[in-house]
Amino acid sequence: MVENIINIVKNNIISNNLINKNDKVIVAVSGGPDSMCLVDSLYKLKEELEFEIIVAHVNHGIREESEQEKVYVETYCKERNIPFNYLKVDIPALSKEQKISEETCGRNVRYEFFEELRKKENANTIAVAHNLNDNVETVLLNIIRGCGLKGLTGMDFKFNNIIRPLLTIEKRDILLYNKELELNPCFDKTNEEEIYLRNKVRLSLIPSLQELNPNFITNINRMRNILKEDNDFIEYYVEEIFKKVIIEEDDSKIIFNFSLFMDEHDSIKNRIVRKIIEKKISNLDGIESIHVLDIIKLLKNNIRGKKYIIGNKFTIEILKKNIAVIY
Q: Is 123 exposed, middle or buried (0-12, 13-18, 19+ CB in 10 A)?
């Protein structure tokens, strides 16, 4: 199993251009079986593929075992001469202060730490240990919350500075990898408690679906691969139009010619409007389908001076026939 997983990780890296020669990679390591499989496989490949790894470990201050996990990961790194970086944060206190869930707060803190470390070390990417089971969970969560085609494709091998070399590997194989190498990883007991929606999906929903079809994990992955091909084509098509739509942009505004996409299919129009919004405010948080439809209606009416305002997020205004601005 060890050699098989090493080969899969190597193929994922090369096929998806995750790591290049002389790259420096920040590896997020909690000490659990997934992250230990990740760091160990990358450690075994770094000489052959000619890259460096730096480990980042975060203590969320939630569980008593966290200190032991820190020692475990640090010891692993020392034995292999891998640079080790550590952050301890009181997530329960910080989440109350920010009035967000501990889960969200912890994720925000982790990724901020990883990105700061990436910049400090002049590293290229941040490797995280999401596996095939995680991706299936993500697809199911997206379905439960309501999603479009993109949501059904789950996570990608690469997103911005994040890479996921284990994305095609099942959890059961990762556990075997740890067992065969006697890595003795740490196990987070909260992962076995149905306190978060993701845990409920993992512990209750997926096992129930596997009773109906033992190949459920494989079939969902096959589905997402097919849908990803379709989504990639649509995104490519949208990007080609989007390049022509933008007339002028700076930090304060984007001026665009909407006549170049108003005759397109509704699916394409919706995506371009979302892309314009995301380009301006960097995200789509709080942007719902009704907002996009209202904006398209504004553009269709094409009346100079008319505006569409979403709180303090942005305003879209018709400057003249076929030309609008978002600011």
A: buried
